[in-house]
Write a structure and sequence with these properties.
The structure is a homodimer. Chain A has about 210 residues and is α/β, with parallel strands linked by helices. Chain A contains seven helices and nine strands; from the N terminus they run αβααβαβαββββαββα. Chain A has helices at about 10-25, 35-40, 45-55, 65-75, 95-100, 155-165, 195; strands spanning about 30, 65, 85-90, 110-115, 125, 130-135, 145-150, 170-175, 185-190. In chain A, the strands form two sheets. A seven-stranded mixed β-sheet of chain A has the order 5-6-4-3-7-8-9, with helices on both faces. Chain A has a two-stranded antiparallel ribbon with strand order 1-2. In chain A, strand 3, helix 5 (about 95-100) and strand 4 form a beta-alpha-beta unit. Chain A is globular. The N and C termini of chain A lie far apart (about 55 Å). Chains A and B meet through helix 1, helix 5, strand 8 and helix 7 of A and helix 1, helix 5, strand 8 and helix 7 of B.
Chain lengths: ~210, ~210
Amino acid sequence: MRYGRIPDETIRRLSTYMRGLVGLFHEGIEKVSSTALAEALHMNPPQIRKDLSYFGAFGTPGVGYEVEKLLNHIKDILKLNNTHSTALVGFGNLGSALLKYPGFSPYGLDIVAVFDDDSAKIGKKINGIEVEDVSRIKDLEKREIRLAILAVPANAAQETTDKLVEAGVRGVLNFAPLYLKVPKKVKVITIDIATDLARLPYYLPAG
Amino acid sequence: MRYGRIPDETIRRLSTYMRGLVGLFHEGIEKVSSTALAEALHMNPPQIRKDLSYFGAFGTPGVGYEVEKLLNHIKDILKLNNTHSTALVGFGNLGSALLKYPGFSPYGLDIVAVFDDDSAKIGKKINGIEVEDVSRIKDLEKREIRLAILAVPANAAQETTDKLVEAGVRGVLNFAPLYLKVPKKVKVITIDIATDLARLPYYLPAG
């Protein structure tokens, strides 16, 4: 199903609602009001109702949402009920940790290819996946891999991204601390761990 | 120096400006207009000018900002010109990767203590830091450690956070995919890798 143009911020919040709903589902909770969902996520109820209204009416006034149904609906909107083959580029400390990270598979995100430029790593097998030379990135389109996780050093990030885009990748989860230039058809989400940690000292009490 | 009440969103953007300025500084660029800085960061110039205006006037109309001066000023605002001892809790895949992560030290964020509850890990030494039993978290206040990076499994995250808060920790960088309940005096920043990756498939073309 296609919807109209949905703001990026709504898509971002939908993924957060999904996380909250997954938590409620695992706690065995079957129904939730927008107020309770908002409270669990430190958000506000009108915002949740407005975001969901883009996708038609759900929820019953005075009762709320059925957790499992809403969860599946949001997964449908986010195209998470299909499996998406994902490439991991950069097999250093962070890359290795991400390959072992169990949080991706519940959303159908499946790392099926790993690339590095270090000959000491190329050819190694981890969890049944062989580390390949970055020159093989060009085959991604043929292999129907259109998502990539980028865990390379900052100075290699833009060049690697250009290769990924050329190979048909349309979504990049970027861990390098810089903005990547990509064509409009490509979506980049950047996770900048250091910049996030750097926001904390501001909140320390003086002294 | 103390400023008035600054919105959280401004603090978040200041850390992003800082990242952009660090990049310009390393490229040897000495002056930058708010327009050029905004462009490099995919933000808008009036927003940058407004955010910076909270902290007094800087920049010269028609010339822009001196990169190094503005960078140092923002670091001062964010209290990043001092060193901040930081604890890492959870020494699994992600924790180990974070300990080796080079991105924290330029901002004075120094991981000086590592905790885990796995007896196979406790006592091991990595980069001169010995992994300690989580029961030692209670000594953090005495050791003047008030920031923590939380890389424990989701089901241990809230309990661990409670212990950190009790031990005087005032800022937590949380990698567990849930909202942590903390008193108002404590700031939590959550990095939810899976939820961020889960936003990408939405942008894939159909078919």
